[in-house]
Amino acid sequence: MGWLQRSASDTQVTHRDRLWLYVVAAIIMLLLVIPTFIVIPMSFSDSQYLEFPPSNWSVRWYDEYFGSSKWMRATVTSFQIGVLTMLVATPLGTAAAYALFVSGHRAARAVFMFLITPMIVPVILIAIGAFYAFGRVGLNNTITGLVLAHTVLAAPLVMIVITASLRTYDLNQELVARSLGASRLKAFFAITLPQIKFSVVTAALLSFLTSFDEVIIAIFVSGGVNATLTKHMFAALRDYIDPTIAAISTIMVLVSSVLLLATQFIGNREK
Amino acid sequence: MESRVETAGINEQALQQQEAREQWTLLGLAAPAVLAVVAIIVIPVGWLFYLSFIGSDGQFSLEHYQKMIQYKSYARVFLITFEVSLLTTVICILIGYPLAYFLALLPQRWAGIFMLAVLLPFWTSLLVRTYAWLVLLQKKGMLNDFAIYIGLWETPVKLVHNMTGTLIGMAHIMLPFLVLPLYGSMRKIERDMMHAAANLGASPVHAFWKVYFPLSLSGMVAGSLIVFVLCLGFYVTPAVLGGGRVVMVATQITAILENQFDWGAASALGVVLLIATIIILYLAARFLKFDAALFGKN
After folding, report:
1. Tens-digit pLDDT profile for chain A (271 aa)?
2. How far is Cα B119 from Cα B110, in angstroms, rounded to an integer?
3. Chain B residues whose beta carbon lies within 8 Å of the beta carbon of residue A230
């Protein structure tokens, strides 16, 4: 245990003096992570009731999930909407972030602030507003409607990621290409895009996840055959607790863990 | 001599034209995003704003706002919303500060690994985490079992479908929003400052409170305000973990729409929520600028 006496920093504090901090931090990190992973063992329980640890193991809730046309339909819808949101929000946000970053116009900052307002307006307000407006134009319960709403939520995240990456990138490279005769468009695709491509991928994954996990707008705007996974899950959580949710939750945790690890990996590559 | 001036003029004109064309192209690139925000946020929210001023007789009226002042039920909703948001923020500060401090002390590489403990929940569906807390906190749940096992209490305590459960779930969901900006501001604090304090004879505890803590305040204030504002409009977690007992503004808006289909009343509540959010963020922006001027340059 010699390391305890060793200095923790180059001031006079030793690791032993900081032991309390390490213990507190470890407990907090456990409390953060446990609720994320606990659904995995729970989903393999044999019991009707929510018990942990399960007394008998089984895959009956997975059978239930994969055998239910309602859950399968909702899963497909959620993936569809997530992918479409990603395909719309990524180019939309990237184009806007790029334009505002290079323009240097007085209004650019104001436009940027305007475009990230969806992060500031309470989601419940966006949800009922969209519900009301979509009702007028027949977009409620459609995939198009929800993709539009989710795109507006995801685009600010894309813009923030792309702007941060443009800050570390030397735009003079594009000027060089253009002085050699490339158009701005060509310079962007040939010179800039390849260098910020990892950030674009991160932004795309983020926008997929924003849509895939979104609950409140989906509760209001989606329905019928186009109801999302989160809408059904919320209803199931509020009214009665169906252990099938543990199986679905496990799948959702796996999806987000894979995407998170992918972005961490990508982040390291870019450095 | 004269011709040279002329070409210079033509060149300048051409450059200006190109510059103008360039600005239009860039405007065109940003236009789709602007249109989307106008269509999905500005017009619908503007519409709700208008509806909140239309009375049941279809005429302009302030009745929805008057009801908010007159009826006790509204006052209770505002009070609970404020209480939950404030308590969640305080819990996040108490738990988030030591965690961010720990992460900021680690070498960058290790901090990146431990940071996954913050990022993973952040990326996991809020519904999944709310569900997990429902299971952990129930009467026969793991937390009750554990507390009884170590002798904290003797019979199972009701931890969910009430305020306690709501606060635990909300704090868990909001913590990353506090830890990330706080960690950012702690990383910017130069180690030399702490060395200087030690050199001048400050004890580690004294140096922490006199030097480190004030420098980390800007991140803490920013994070706290984000947490508070997000809590104000929260819907899912109080609805599930509160079990109908914790009625916040968002819950009330939904209830009004589901039960009475009263768009005017629901919109008025939404408008109040939006205005409260804007005021807090405006104050935050001012305060933080003030704060940066005070601490930023050191």
Report:
1. 566 766 666 556 777 778 889 999 999 999 999 888 888 888 888 877 766 677 788 888 899 899 999 999 999 999 999 999 999 999 999 999 999 988 877 788 889 989 989 988 999 999 999 999 999 999 999 999 999 999 999 999 999 999 988 888 888 888 888 888 888 888 888 888 888 888 999 999 999 999 999 999 999 999 888 999 999 999 888 876 778 888 999 999 998 889 888 888 877 766 5
2. 14
3. 125, 127
- Rounded Cα distance, A105 and B40, in Å: 26
Task: Please answer whether residues B238 and B84 qualify as being in contact, where contact means their C-beta atoms are separated by less than 8 angstroms.
Answer: yes
B65-296, which class in CATH?
mainly alpha
Sequence ranges of the domains in chain A: 2-60, 68-239
Any idea where the domains of chain B sit in the sequence? 1-51, 65-296
Bridge partners, A45 (sequence order): A57
AA identity, residue A28: I
Cα distance from B269 to chain A (closest Cα, Å)? 9
- Are residues B98 and A24, on separate chains, in Cβ contact within 8 Å? yes
Amino acid at A116: I
Bond prior to A53 in cis (omega within 30° of 0): yes
Cβ of A125 within 8 Å of Cβ of B233? The answer is: yes
Q: Cβ contacts (< 8 Å) between A33 and chain B: which residues?
A: 117, 120-121
Q: Is B273 exposed, middle or buried (0-12, 13-18, 19+ CB in 10 A)?
A: buried
CB–CB contact B98 A28 (8 Å)? yes
Nearest CA distance, B217 vs chain A (angstrom): 19
Q: Kindly give the residue spans of alpha helices, DSSP state H, lying in B38-150.
A: 43-51, 63-70, 72-105, 108-114, 116-123, 126-137, 142-149
Is B44 within 8 Å of A213 when comparing Cβ atoms? Answer: no
Question: Which residue of B33, B124, B274 is in closest CB contact with A92?
Answer: B33
* B291 sits in which H/E element: helix B263-291
Residue B281, both tokens: 């963020």
Nearest CA in chain B to A183: B22
* A73 exposure class (CB count in 10 Å sphere: 0-12, 13-18, 19+): middle
Q: Which residues of B touch A253 (CB under 8 A)?
A: 124-125, 128
Number of CB pairs, chain A paired with chain B, less than 8 A apart: 249
Give the one of A122, A233, A234 whose C-beta lies nearest to B232's C-beta: A122
Instruction: State whether B116 and A38 contact (CB < 8 Å).
Output: no
Is the CB of B208 inside 8 Å of chain A's CB atoms? no
- Asked if residues B191 and B215 have their Cβ atoms less than 8 Å apart, the reply is no
CATH of range A68-239; options 1.10.3720.10, 1.10.10.10, 3.40.50.150, 1.20.1740.10: 1.10.3720.10
Contact A124 B103 (CB under 8 A): no
This model's pTM is above 0.95: no
Q: How far apart are the C-alpha atoms of A11 and A211, rounded to whole Å?
A: 47
Quote the minimal CA–CA distance from B258 to chain A in Å.
10
